């Protein structure tokens, strides 16, 4: 297990060094995007229209933050990750089209994303679910918000962060997926657990 | 007197307490989990969780950005005056808490996909009523996170399989949920009644503190057995591997139809937020889950 501190824009070369179980901290720009934002970004791309921000080399954060207002200025209150699997249907295309290097979320992602990360050079960083205050503390500035019509949780929040983490690299760009490994172990434990519970149905 | 204003005030306080500060029993269970966890990745997660809990209390900010769907459980003494004013008072409290705490707006119209912006909407906040004797009013706020809600399970089991079928249903639900509900979780199990009753009981089971096993000894034993089994899965904190997958299993039941064996599993994330207060007829307020105003 190694600890990496990377600054955006992150290059493919830097990302290829990371392996599952490594710990990663990110400084620079990260952008929140959930289901609706993923869908809209891909639709715009299909129509040949640009996104409000160039995502190349940046990190996308599966997060619907809780924001507050101090006067006219947005302030971040709590910003932990949301469940990433909901974005599985979009993420491979999203990585391919927009060249994001890091996907941050919780709960892990599936084979489609794992394949895309291997092919195009990206990693999945697992952030502790629910740890919204730690995440908010790493946000130094709200650079902007786009697509606010989608609602506060679904909007695209552009955040300037300093040492955002710890992120556990749970999918690397070499085809390894830590969550899948844990799932396999759970599967192996199954019979033993059934036996302990006296289950011979 | 229990006035609508007092109910609103108490409900705002409960929502604020719930989203910022975990109940004592949950904090204790998380510390115990940290001490017992052996996996490196799991320990890192629990460390971040404990740090986050502490930081939320210190900065008075919500533990998690998902401040949930707002649900209230009311135990209303039949002699309490002004019971009909309570739904509106709780609605007002929800709007106020959303602005003042703040809470994330989480009430979306399922057809128009439009977020109401203030956590209220059709049937939301949802109120569960129980009429008791006397003249006190007990209010519990349960802001319920979406990630854990999404792995809820309900099944109409085979009556002939009995408790064995129930055990399998519960442990399978935990294994299937994996990392999704932000483990370590509290597992609420509801059995019997009908499909709707089982789900209701499962969620209600989440309200029981972790240090209070079911008063029925056989059920308490089953709770412990399922707790130990869930912690053998290896899912671990946040699903990154480890032994601490659940903090507790609480079971509630109703009698069943001879032909049916309804069972439901409700998941609560580690940020197991709930807060309860009792309002007495003379207007005195007791906070039961949290220290409030030095009490």
Write the SSE topology.
The complex is a heterodimer of chains A (201) and B (295).
Chain A: E1 3-7, H1 12-16, E2 23-32, H2 35-46, E3 59-61, E4 66-70, E5 73-78, H3 88-98, E6 102-105, H4 111-120, E7 123-126, H5 132-138, E8 139-146, E9 156-171, H6 178-196
Parallel strand pairs in A: 1-2, 2-3, 3-6, 6-7
Antiparallel strand pairs in A: 2-9, 4-5, 7-9, 8-9
Helix pairs in contact in A: 2-3, 3-4
Chain B: H1 4-20, H2 24-36, H3 40-59, E1 69-77, H4 86-100, E2 126-132, E3 137-144, H5 146-149, E4 153-157, H6 162-177, E5 185-191, H7 195-205, H8 217-230, E6 246-253, E7 261-268, E8 275-279, E9 285-287
Parallel strand pairs in B: 1-2, 5-6
Antiparallel strand pairs in B: 1-3, 3-8, 4-7, 5-7, 8-9
How would you describe what is shown here?
The complex is a heterodimer of chains A (201) and B (295). With 201 residues, chain A is α/β, with parallel strands linked by helices. Chain A has a single domain, classed as fumarase (Alpha-Beta Barrel). Helices cover 32% and strands 30% of the residues of chain A. In chain A, helix 2 crosses helix 3 and helix 3 packs parallel to helix 4. The N and C termini of chain A lie far apart (42 Å). Chain B is of the alpha+beta class and 295 residues long. Chain B folds into two domains: 116 residues; 122 residues, no CATH class. Helices cover 37% and strands 20% of the residues of chain B. In chain B, strands 2-1-3-8-9 form a five-stranded mixed beta sheet. Chain B has a four-stranded mixed beta sheet with strand order 4-7-5-6. In chain B, helix 1 packs across helix 4 and helix 2 runs antiparallel to helix 3. The mean pLDDT of chain B is 96.
């Amino acid at each position: 297990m190694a600890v990496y501190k990377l600054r955006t824009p992150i290059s493919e070369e830097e990302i290829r060094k990371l392996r599952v179980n490594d710990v990663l901290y990110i400084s620079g720009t990260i952008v929140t995007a959930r289901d609706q934002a993923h869908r809209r970004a891909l639709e715009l791309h299909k129509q040949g229209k640009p996104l409000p921000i160039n995502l190349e080399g940046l990190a996308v954060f599966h997060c619907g933050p809780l924001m507050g207002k101090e006067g006219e200025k947005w302030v971040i209150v709590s910003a932990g990750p949301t469940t990433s699997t909901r974005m599985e249907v979009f993420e491979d295309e999203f990585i391919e089209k927009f060249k994001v290097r890091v996907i941050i979320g919780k709960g892990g992602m599936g084979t489609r994303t794992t394949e895309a990360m291997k092919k195009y050079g990206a990693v999945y960083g697992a952030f502790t679910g629910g740890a919204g205050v730690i995440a908010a503390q790493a946000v130094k500035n709200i650079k902007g918000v786009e697509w606010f019509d989608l609602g506060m949780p679904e909007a695209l929040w552009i955040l300037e962060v300093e040492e955002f983490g710890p992120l556990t690299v749970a999918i690397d760009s070499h085809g390894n997926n830590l969550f899948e490994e844990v799932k396999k172990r759970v599967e192996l434990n199954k019979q033993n657990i059934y036996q302990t519970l006296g289950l011979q149905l | 007197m229990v006035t609508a204003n007092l109910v609103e005030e108490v409900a705002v306080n409960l929502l604020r307490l719930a989203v910022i500060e975990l109940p004592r029993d949950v904090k204790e269970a998380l510390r115990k989990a940290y001490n017992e966890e052996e996996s490196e990745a799991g320990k890192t997660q629990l460390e971040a969780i404990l740090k986050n809990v502490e930081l939320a209390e210190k900065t008075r900010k919500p533990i998690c950005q998902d401040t949930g769907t707002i649900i209230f459980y009311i135990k209303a003494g039949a002699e309490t005056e002004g019971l009909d004013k309570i739904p509106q008072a709780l609605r007002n409290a929800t709007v106020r808490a959303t602005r003042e705490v703040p809470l994330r707006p989480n009430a979306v119209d399922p057809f128009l996909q439009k977020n109401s912006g203030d956590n209220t909407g059709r049937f939301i906040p949802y109120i569960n009523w129980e009429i008791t004797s006397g003249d006190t009013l007990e209010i519990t706020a349960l802001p319920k996170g979406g990630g854990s809600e999404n792995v809820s399970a309900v099944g109409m089991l085979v009556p002939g399989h009995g408790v064995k079928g129930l055990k399998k249903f519960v442990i399978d639900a935990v294994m299937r949920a994996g990392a999704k509900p932000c483990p370590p979780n509290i597992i609420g199990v509801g059995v019997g009644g009908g499909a709707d009753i089982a789900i209701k009981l499962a969620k209600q089971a989440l309200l029981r503190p972790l240090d209070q096993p079911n008063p029925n000894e056989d059920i308490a034993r089953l709770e412990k057995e399922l707790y130990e089994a869930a912690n053998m899965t290896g899912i671990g904190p946040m699903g990154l591997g480890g032994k601490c997958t659940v903090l507790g299993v609480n079971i509630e039941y109703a009698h069943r139809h001879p032909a049916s064996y309804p069972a439901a599993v409700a998941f609560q994330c580690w940020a197991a937020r709930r807060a309860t207060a009792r309002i007495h007829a003379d207007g005195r307020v007791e906070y039961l889950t949290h220290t409030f105003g030095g009490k």
